[in-house]
């Protein structure tokens, strides 16, 4: 018969935050210059200074201490009760274990623990680095397959030298599998110097060498970072990690500077190659920024908001839009590299062949509107055969795409209608559209046109 | 070039590295720690340094290719097709021979890899045979540096004898295996000694794998650490190691010794061989 200590009885008053086994030190001023290197998180009880906070919206009673189902007959384990779908207590189990003062984990290589479950299941998220503050050095293991046998798991510290004052010791988040809750246990949670992890690999920009136009004021960042390590069983395991673990290097600090938070700051025109390393290992992928100087934003619209139904503009409040890029597989190649300059959002379609903006929930009634406006910027050269075709679709009485009752307004802009390197103001009269009370879709199709920016997309009268 | 093996160094390691001593006690074949041997002197008689340009093939005056799938996956239900493609066997331009196993369909197999031997081109009887190797890894990856008796065509296996200087299971990267096979002690019944590191792997760097072989003994070393000694009393059949043997390098995928590769096996996997050096005892 399972005996557990139910935290509800101990801590029923606390709904969101459960503080356990920790007396916040009163002598903060006497804190030593370096943090303790205590590797223990939960062996048979909370380690020194460890506290727990359940995540918002989770079942705050999900976590408990179990003295029966323990690894290797030790005194206690951590027990997590994942709620059933629709359970009133919460939709998932989740929380973070942290210490107030921080610990020096730089002599360890991984967080390790044993886990098992009441049945074969997948634990959605396990990791460390959530400290209810900056969460700067987070590492996450997704989709951990567990069964009824104890098994050891590893979450590596990608660069231990960075964790000299880490507060986030462990976190978990897990919803029901196929609607069904279950129980899993975790035990012997500790940081270790594991010599059996090897061959770390990391990448930025999806491992590609990305070249991108950029402008002063452009909000640019490294993205698509990845990390994997080879486990003691010879298999590679991928982890999600914070970009703060990477060491970024700019080839030209007069063009792009790397801040202490690993943000990229564009400081001048020219070329800068951004490369990354993690620990001692060079990361795959790079970002070359070709900084053009000051970006000319599209002219600010002057129409009163009452004259406008906006789909995309920082000058108005947009109506609900399902998406600006439908990613219609398999024929669409268009990618979105939308960007922000000085707070102004701009759509950017790259590798463009066609793309759609859907606004069907609800559809837009533009009965009182006379025109569709778009600002289009084409950074590349315009060829004689370059064109851009815009199809505005009304979904008809059935209110949905297709069904034989749609009506389209098709407008083709040829090379003579478009100019390179400036904003082209496009105004399309709606008079040619037989119905405009259930508008739901704009389709862009191009020829000899692979990259363009768009802003200020709205109907007006 | 004179190579001197200092057994005193082994004793030193046992003294200063208690965990190795504990490990040695756990491994039956480490009971003998070289006490009865003395300093041996060796002189270099043959070597392969694998210096050359990237993409060059190993010296054809020394090496033969084994091609295909052999009989029943080279007798072991191995899954790879061995080729002589430079995608599978070539110098890496950095002073190493690279044998690469790839997950690709070829000749009815799901993997390609490489296996080369020195049969009828180089053989040795007794001495120290060593190679500096960086091992590949992953479930089902089975690299080996080994030797077969020259008279395999007359006597067939296992009567010809087999000395496995190093074998490795990619899913157990902290353990290597040294083995001998002969009549009555072959395949799953070979005389095999695993050597396991507690918190370290063999595939993260180059390591020196060696045997020191005499008329009545075969000693197995890794990085000059003696971890196994085999003599005629250790084998339950005829001692078939008093004749010339030739060398073999290969990376198998799957097979009875290692088991199947899995979806988690990283491919491609490359075994790098910095050099092979063969010494005769003075």
Describe the protein in words.
- The complex is a heterodimer of chains A (461) and B (282).
- With 461 residues, chain A is mainly beta.
- Chain A folds into three domains: 4-192, Galactose-binding lectin (Jelly Rolls), CATH 2.60.120.430; 198-294, Sandwich (Immunoglobulin-like); 305-460, Jelly Rolls (Sandwich), CATH 2.60.120.
- Helices cover 1% and strands 46% of the residues of chain A.
- In chain A, the strands form six sheets. A nine-stranded antiparallel beta sheet of chain A has the order 2-4-7-12-9-10-18-17-14, with no helix packed on it. In chain A, strands 16, 25, 26, 27, 28, 30, 33 and 35 form an eight-stranded antiparallel beta sheet that branches. In chain A, strands 1, 3, 5, 6, 8, 11 and 13 form a seven-stranded antiparallel beta sheet that branches.
- The N and C termini of chain A lie far apart (73 Å).
- Mean pLDDT of chain A is 91; it is low at 1-26.
- Chain B is mainly β.
- Chain B has one domain (2-281): Jelly Rolls, CATH 2.60.120.
- Helix content of chain B is 10%, strand content 42%.
- Chain B is built from four helices and 18 strands.
- In chain B, the strands form two sheets. In chain B, strands 1, 2, 4, 5, 6, 7, 9, 14, 15, 16 and 18 form an eleven-stranded mixed beta sheet that branches. Chain B has a seven-stranded antiparallel beta sheet with strand order 3-8-17-10-11-12-13, with no helix packed on it.
- In chain B, helix 1 crosses helix 2 (18-26).
- The longest helix of chain B has 10 residues, at 7-16.
């Amino acid at each position: 018969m399972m005996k557990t200590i139910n935290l509800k009885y101990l801590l029923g008053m606390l709904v969101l935050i459960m503080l356990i086994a920790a007396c916040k030190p009163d002598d903060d001023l006497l804190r030593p210059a370096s943090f303790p290197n205590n590797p223990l998180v939960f062996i048979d009880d909370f380690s020194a200074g460890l506290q727990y906070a359940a995540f918002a919206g989770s079942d705050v009673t999900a976590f408990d201490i179990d003295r029966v189902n323990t690894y290797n007959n030790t005194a206690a384990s951590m027990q997590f009760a994942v709620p059933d779908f629709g359970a009133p207590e919460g939709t998932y189990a989740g929380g973070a274990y942290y210490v107030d003062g921080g610990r020096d984990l730089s002599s360890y290589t991984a967080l390790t623990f044993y886990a098992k479950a009441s049945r074969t299941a997948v634990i959605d998220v396990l990791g460390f680095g959530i400290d209810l503050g900056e969460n700067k050095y987070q590492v996450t293991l997704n989709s951990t397959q567990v069964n009824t046998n104890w098994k050891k798991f590893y979450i590596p510290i990608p660069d231990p030298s960075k964790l000299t004052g880490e507060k986030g010791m462990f976190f978990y988040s897990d919803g029901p599998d196929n609607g069904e809750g279950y129980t899993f246990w975790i035990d012997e949670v500790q940081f270790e110097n594991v010599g059996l992890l090897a061959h770390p690999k990391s990448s930025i920009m999806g491992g590609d060498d990305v070249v991108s136009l950029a402008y002063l004021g452009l909000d640019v960042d490294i993205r698509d970072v990845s990390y994997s390590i080879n486990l003691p069983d010879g298999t590679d395991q991928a982890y999600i990690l914070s970009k703060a673990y990477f060491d970024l290097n700019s080839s030209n600090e007069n063009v792009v500077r790397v801040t202490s938070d690993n943000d990229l700051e564009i400081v001048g025109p020219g070329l800068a190659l951004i490369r990354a390393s993690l620990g001692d290992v060079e990361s795959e992928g790079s970002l070359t920024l070709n900084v053009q100087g000051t970006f000319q934003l599209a002219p600010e619209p002057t129409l009163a908001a009452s004259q406008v139904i906006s789909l995309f503009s920082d000058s108005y409040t947009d109506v609900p839009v399902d998406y600006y890029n439908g990613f219609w597989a398999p024929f669409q190649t268009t990618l979105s590299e939308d960007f922000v300059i000085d707070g102004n959002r701009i759509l950017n379609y790259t590798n463009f062949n066609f793309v759609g903006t859907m606004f069907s929930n609800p559809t837009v009634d533009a009965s009182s509107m006379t025109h569709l406006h778009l600002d289009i910027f084409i950074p590349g050269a315009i060829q004689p055969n370059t064109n851009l075709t815009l199809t505005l679709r009304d979904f008809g009485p059935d209110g949905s795409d297709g069904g034989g009752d749609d009506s389209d307004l098709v407008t083709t802009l040829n090379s003579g209608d478009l100019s390179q390197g400036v904003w082209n103001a496009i105004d399309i009269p709606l008079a040619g559209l037989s119905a405009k009370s259930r508008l739901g879709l704009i389709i862009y199709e191009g020829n000899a046109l692979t990259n363009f920016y768009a802003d200020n997309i709205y109907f007006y009268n | 070039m004179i190579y001197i093996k200092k057994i005193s160094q082994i004793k030193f390691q046992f003294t200063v590295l208690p965990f190795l001593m504990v490990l040695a006690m756990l491994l039956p074949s480490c009971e003998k720690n070289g006490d009865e041997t003395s300093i041996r002197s060796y002189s270099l008689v043959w070597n392969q340094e694998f210096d050359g340009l990237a993409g060059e093939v190993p010296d054809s005056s020394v090496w033969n290719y084994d091609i295909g799938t052999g009989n029943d996956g080279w007798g072991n239900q191995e899954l790879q097709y061995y080729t002589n493609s430079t995608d599978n066997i070539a110098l890496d331009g950095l002073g190493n021979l690279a044998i690469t196993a790839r997950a690709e369909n070829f000749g009815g197999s799901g993997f390609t890899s490489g296996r080369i031997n020195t049969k009828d081109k180089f053989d040795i009887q007794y001495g120290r045979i060593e190679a500096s190797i960086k091992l590949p890894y992953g479930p089902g990856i089975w690299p080996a540096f080994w030797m077969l008796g020259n008279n395999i065509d007359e006597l067939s296996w296992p009567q010809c004898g087999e000395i496995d200087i190093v074998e490795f299971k990619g899913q157990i990267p902290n353990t290597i295996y040294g083995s001998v096979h002969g009549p009555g002690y072959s395949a799953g019944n070979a005389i095999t000694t695993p050597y396991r590191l507690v918190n370290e792997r063999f595939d993260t760097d180059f390591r020196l794998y060696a045997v020191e072989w005499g008329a009545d003994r075969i000693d197995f070393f890794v990085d000059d650490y003696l971890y196994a000694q085999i003599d005629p009393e250790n084998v339950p059949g005829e001692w078939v190691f008093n004749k010339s043997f030739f060398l073999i390098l290969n990376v198998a995928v799957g097979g009875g010794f290692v088991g199947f590769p899995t979806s988690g096996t990283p491919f491609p996997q490359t075994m790098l061989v910095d050099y092979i050096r063969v010494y005769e005892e003075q």
